[in-house]
Amino acid sequence: MQTDALKKLVMDICNKQSESQNIEVKAATKGCPTRLFDTLSSFSNQDEGGVIVFGLDEKEDFAIKGVYDSQDLQKKVTEQCKQMEPTVRALFTICEIEEKIIVSAEIPGVDISERPVFYKGVGRIKGSYVRVGESDEPMSEYEIYSYEAFRKRIRDDIRTIINSKMQLLDEKRMKDYLDAVKDERKNLAENVSNEEIMELMGITADGTPTLAGLMTFSKYPQTYFPQLCITAVALPGTEMGAVGDDGERFIDNKRITGSIPDMLEEAVEFVRKNSRTKTIIDESGHRNDKAEYPIKAVREAILNALVHRDYSIHTENVPIRIEMYRDRMEIMNSGGLYGKISIDALGKVHPETRNAVLANILELLKVTENRYSGIPTMRMEFLNAGLPAPIFSVVHGEFKVVMRNGYNKEAQSISDSIVEFCCTPRTRAELIAFTGKSRTYTMTQMVQPLIDSGKLKLTLPEKPKSSKQKFVKV
Q1: Is residue 351 part of a domain?
Q2: pTM above 0.85, yes or no
Q3: What's the average pLDDT block by block, 10 residues per block, for the chain (474 residues)?
Q4: Could you give the 3-state DSSP secondary structure of residue 340?
Q5: Disulfide: which of 160, 265, 393, 394 matches 336 by Cβ 3.0-4.6 Å?
Q6: Are residues 20 and 128 part of one domain?
């Protein structure tokens, strides 16, 4: 970092009065902070790394205080960096602002194959941290395992499932699969038995079904893994816990079980059933129905969750979750990004596959294309529908897709209509009839926010509960 860049960074911190995902502030007026290990770890464990700025006091509104001794500070920070595994290589910059010396230490993100970076003094489990906003939080045991799994190439989808039985596999689906293998893998079409194909393709290992084989071909995989399923809920509001017009907490609530192909189709049908359909009449009088969410994109998102979730023992008790809110849908699965890829690169580069055997099985069954087209398809479908692009994120080892349905625009339109309706003072009964909603919902969820925002006012403000009360545009 150049000195001018450091000065600009300090000014930005002072103006914003806050730290961030990749900025940490330390005072260091009386000496070097003795515990930098958590920040050194968290910055090293994210792709973009981070910068520690010494000489600002967060407790005094990020006032510029300067450091006690820039040379000694660098020496002691370097000593702490050497206590990390692997060693952290900080890059220092020094500048002068308001006759005070400011020092920055740039902490580079390390390659995923070397993560997690941790403090050797307490070990990998207690000394590994992850950056969340402006704080450093201990990594969970699963987050640490996920790095180990990638580095050691642990293949959880082909671990054998003890006590599982071959005779409980779906014979028709297995036959379709074996036919597809023989048709597309010509070298397996002759002089190779079905049992040998199943071993070679990862469906079985020493005659015992693997997890990939079980999740694809078993008549009911949840016999062995009750939580390797999908929980799906449709909610009446925009937050969990909000209730509908009649006090209901859920519009629909379902646990979806079965093999992956079966769960996929049932989950897509759940979304379809609980989605609203908008009817549009064009200029020629033809009726066109527009789905709330592009179903093709929904299918891709659910399929991605089923294929690319983590299937290790650490997450086998965590189901995939689908939550349909009034303004959005969220699909969540265990397992963050796998391999050397960032959120920004999703859909733009070919990532490494966490469950390669499972993906290959589903490709031959024509369930998935396995051509890395899922996320580009989702984005294109939402673009064509005139909706905001899906948002992808990873927090504490959980991957989330958020799909918005345009409800906020619709809600704003309804609010504007209510305000215009109240150009003439309106009673509660008139407002309820205008909205078509219940009395409670109309007054608390639609009218009160307009009063709070100053768009409507009461004609009898001194008697808010009066039966003669009316509401008028401001």
Answers
A1: yes
A2: no
A3: 94 93 95 96 95 95 95 97 97 96 97 93 96 92 89 92 87 94 88 93 94 96 96 91 79 96 97 80 59 93 96 94 94 89 82 91 89 84 90 89 81 80 90 84 87 92 90 92
A4: coil
A5: 394
A6: yes
